[in-house]
Amino acid sequence: MQTFFWRLLLISLALELPIPTRAQVTTAQSNNSRTGANLHEKRLTLANVNSKSFGKLFSRKVDGDIFAQPLYLPSLNIPGKGKRNVIFVATEHDSVYAFDLNGTTDAPLWRASLLPANSSPVPAEELDCPFISPEVGITPTPVIDTSTNTLYTLARTKENGRYMQKLHALDITNGAEKFGGPVLIEASVEGSGSGAVNRHIDFDPVRENPRAALLLAGGMVYLTWGSSCDVPRYHGWVMAYDAHSLQQIAVFNVSPNGGEGGIWQSDAGPAADQDGNIFVATGNGDFNAGAGGAGRNYGDSLLKLDGQTLAVLDYFTPFNQSDLNAQDLDLGSQGPVLLPDQPGPHAHLVVLAGKEGKLYVIDRDHMGKYRTTSDDVIQTLNLSGAYGAVAYWNGHIYYTDDTHTTSDFAVENGHLTLKGRTSKLEASAATPTVSADGTENAIVWVLATKEWNEAFRRRPAVLHAYEAANLAHELYNSEQQTQRDRAGMTVRFAIPTVADGYVLVGTSGELDVYGLLRPSGKQ
Predict the structure, then answer these.
(1) Within 13 Å of residue 341, how many CA atoms lie on the same side as its CB?
(2) What pLDDT digit, counting tens, does each position of 166-182 carry?
(3) Torsion over CA: 458, 36, 169, 15 (sign)
(4) Which among 331, 330, 329, 298 has a CA at the least distance from the CA of 315?
(5) Tens digits of per-residue pLDDT, 227-255?
(6) On the chain, which terminus has fewer CB atoms closer than 10 Å, C or N?
(7) Domain edges within the chain
(8) Which residues on neighbouring strands pair with residue 417, listed in sequence order?
């Protein structure tokens, strides 16, 4: 076995390929199943993640807030600079940065501004929503295609008084535009719903707010939209673009004969299975899909879409959808997470919760559609409301709720059983991340990201680390050594990235990098 490993190592070096077990994070929540687990973390362990050995190493200033999850590629060949371990950061000022993880200055390897002449990000006050402020540029997490060295991102701009949204394809080695990009986002579908003109609904670049992460699957880039603070008029949209030509391939509108049904998922991404099916969760909005099969509106639903046409293949809608809609208890406040194949009669599971606080375990091959008095799902757990998405590792689901608590549920024969909980955080969080070396040294990372305290003052983000097998055991938090480790001011729903012994945290105007300290206690 050792001989085989060294041969594999030499071949990889000769071909300039990364070692297969080297961690990389090219999409939100680590993979297209959105499990949020990095299983190749060999440096961070249960023994060394503590305030004596682990802490904040450095920060990198950027030109705007970082809502998008940082991405990471090791050993990337940068022309003229050699191989570098690169962090990719996108900001609300419409910039994309590539930082050398092992660099010693704030200077990036490259920075791409996606603002043309006479343009700016969209001023927040013009969107009537304070949640992303003072400007709205790049919100959703980009996605990287390592086969073509391309980073895809969606940017919002105001150009000569006109609001625009554009899909960009950037060379990850220098930030240059590729494939004839950027392309302007435009779409129209037949329908009689909110904002329809002559029985058509046009995509509105002002009201449509992209929050859920980008998805790359089957040679296509998938984009989704929701709203800014439910300001009318808006719809949920999904669009598919060819990853090489940037040609628009398919468009789906969630509520063409109604309104709303936005796809936001608290910044978590749409998921894709191995068959190329796409899974998205929608928020409050009109629903009539159960009306004799003729309805086209899918508010508060989990949708399974054909990856090529975006046609609805199957769906789940809670029986109390009308109540959820009336009370703004979005099902789509979380994004779907696809579990690895399970033993028993339900091999293909998807897990999802929403603001109501019900955690659903659903068979992806039989999602249950809509029933008027009960739900046709495998299991429903009555918990507290949640945002973002769950994380999955080694037969366990980690669920952070709006009581500021993270719970551990074991997955056993398609059902969840509570195993443990953390103590309450100082503020609400959204999507946990798990780092592990396979089944060893598993750590659950949770980032508390509520912006304001009781006195309506901005909060710093707080990074927490827990032993995955015992959530009652907190290994570390960034307030234990405040002067050294305090993070920047938080932004909503930020997701930490863990790779190669580092934890990357996006905040307001800076990237914070945590890792193992030198013996002196400093970087």
Answers:
(1) 1
(2) 999 999 999 999 999 99
(3) positive
(4) 298
(5) 999 999 999 999 999 999 999 999 999 99
(6) N
(7) 21-516
(8) 410
